Amino acid sequence: MLRQLHSLPGLLAAIFVLLISVTGALLSFNPVLERATTSVPASGQISVAEFVSQLAKHYSEVEQVTRTPTGSLIVYYMQDGQVRVDQVDHYTGQAIIPYEPPAYSRWVKNLHRSLLLDTYGRALVGITALTLLLLAISGVMLLVTRLGGWRQLFRPVNGTLIQRLHTEFGRLALLGLLVSSLTGIYLSATTFNLIAEGLEAEPELMQQVVTGPAAPIETLTVLKSTDLSNLKELVYPYPNDPKGTYSLTTKQGAGYLNQTSGEWLSYQPHNVTYLLYEFIYMLHTGEGLWWFGLALGIFALAAPLLAITGVLIWWQKFRAKPRLIANSKANTAVSIILVGSENNTTWGFAKTLHNNLVKAGQSVHTAPMNQLTNQYVNAKYLFILTATYGDGDAPTSAKKFLAKLEKTSKKPSFSTSILGFGDRQFPQFCGFAKQVAAAINTKGWPELLPLETINKQSSQEFARWGNALSKKLGTQLQLNHSSVQPKTTTLVLDKKTTHGIEVQAPTAVLAFKALKNNLPYFEVGDLVGILPPNNQAPRLYSLASASKDGILEICVRQHLNGLCSNFLHQLPLGGSIKAFIQPNPKFRPVSGKTPIILIGAGTGIGPLVGFIRHNQKHRPMYLYWGGRSLNSDFLYQSELHKYLADKRLTELNAVFSRDQEQAYVQDKLSLDATKLGELIKQDAQVLVCGGRNMANSIMAAFDKILIPLNTDVAILKTQGRYREDVY
Ligand SMILES: Cc1cc2nc3c(=O)[nH]c(=O)nc-3n(C[C@H](O)[C@H](O)[C@H](O)COP(=O)(O)O)c2cc1C
């Protein structure tokens, strides 16, 4: 619901948001330019009387003096029977230039205020401001829900580059967009008289008419006591009119002056509504508060970027949604597939299952989990494929599932199989799939296969589940699916060093270059997907370099039957691979100066060494790493010693399981418990990279280390201070 609320108005209003924000940003430069070309005296320096006396030396028939919000003084005067307008100097009253705002500026202003469409345009602009407000609020709510609370609002976000850009622009410009949209709505409402401006509340100022000859203007008492910085407007009486009065408006109020005595004939301070209007006008335009207006203008530039990235995200999602062929009705299908998904990748897996079952001759009904009904009268199998979000929460298309399940009472004719999609880096790995499995178990629904989980959309794990399912159904299914194949780049092997052959752990450090120096963008800790020849299932490797290093570097351990690892180990220098980048923004050191504890084993050293390499600011970094033998598989040995010497690395703790010490990395952690506890007290972040078993042992060791601190790994994980990249 929140998502629809965010994306629908966003799509409809994108073009208007684009127009209004770009013109708003352009206009925000006007007060800055005006300010730069005008020297404004400080308050208390010069009175209105002093100024008008100077003015009288250059202009004989002044009609009116107006001070713009930025401080420029504009004089309207008669010359040769025509009204002319000049911008004049504050001190001398001399003309600076004829005053005429540039035509383009007026055009931009009109476009911003009314899209050049008068009343209808003004209404459209008002609606756009309202939409912008709705988008800002629903966007924040969406982010808060996805990140698991207000306190997490500034946590790094996952997703594609476009999704991350959309979030970052949004977070950056949020306050500015809220101010621009709220003040814009207010100004629109005053245009359509839905809110009072306050001017109409001013009483009739002319209370009495006094006649008498006009005294020299510089002698008028009120003008002498009014500071020029407070002047808004001074309208002169007609020349030689004995009943004439000056009309004076200042920042504080307005009234009429006796032209003989210079005293107030009447005076009315501005009311609160008017002052509020002026304040909001100033906030919106920056006129009178140029730096604020400029900041708003710059933030407004985020709006087109948000509109463009927002439309791209919508388009990506639209395209990613699989079109299902032969999707039978719920009440006729033999197999029911229910899908819980937020970002659509689970739909891709569901489509592969759907197509395979259809090919095997079954009638299949595939739908979102929210559409659970009790109409599956013909069904023999119910498959539930679901992702997990937040802290073990349901994805959007499954939010209503548990409540609907609770209400179903009939014993079903089908047996169920649940497949959870998740990411082991989250404390609640496949938490929602587990909840669903528990709820179905409580209902007593028969089980076809026990709950299975898929980490990081692994196509291998999915194919394995497919094999188990094939056996159960007695039908051979080919569940070959990988998430939507990203565009690949061809890379050539530039350098290769191999270690660990003597200890039966052949491990290669491979550095690739792009064919035409066009490496895609990536950072240390992101993942590279590599497609082995004649195979569509990519293997993911953690990156030890960033694209700015000019190389793509990975560490690969050769596995006996590993299709991709054997291919990479046998690849000659100059040999090419096809690869794509999968961002992994969570697995990075948090910004700041707090210590970083890097822990890994075997090839897990890859991204850890990359973080150290890029530690130009010498923040404290402690490395714990486990290998087999110092003389055989100590990857990056000389490089790490170089980093120790130049202070990019604070401490190097390497342990070896097949040397005399026979130690694993978790043993070293336990030995260093006191020191590590101290580092955690200093807000250190822990980054772990390596195999799942090693990561579990590290977690167990750390839980013990954290006992005296009254915390544990699960808590550190929720704070983003314990992150894993495991495989
Ligand atoms: C913001 C966010 C929160 C996530 N939370 C969890 C989680 O708590 N547990 C988990 O196992 N996976 C979590 N994941 C991983 C997704 O469940 C996983 O990537 C899944 O394959 C996405 O499927 P979908 O594209 O169909 O939504 C999260 C992903 C994101 C982007």
Automatic annotation (TrEMBL):
Q: Where is the Flavodoxin-like domain?
A: 335-470
Nucleotidyltransferase among the record's keywords? no
What the entry lists under Pfam families is as follows:
Flavodoxin_1, NAD_binding_1, PepSY_TM
- UniProtKB keywords: Flavoprotein, FMN, Membrane, Transmembrane, Transmembrane helix
Gene3D superfamilies per UniProt: 3.40.50.360, Nucleotide-binding domain of ferredoxin-NADP reductase (FNR) module, Translation factors
Chain segments annotated as transmembrane:
12-33, 123-145, 172-196, 289-315
tRNA processing listed as a keyword: no
Q: Which PROSITE patterns match?
A: FAD_FR (PS51384), FLAVODOXIN_LIKE (PS50902)
> Which domain of life, per UniProt?
Bacteria
Where is the FAD-binding FR-type domain positioned along the sequence? 474-590
Q: What is this protein called?
A: NADPH flavoprotein
What is the source species? Marinospirillum insulare
Query: What are the top taxonomic ranks of the organism?
Result: Bacteria, Pseudomonadati, Pseudomonadota, Gammaproteobacteria, Oceanospirillales
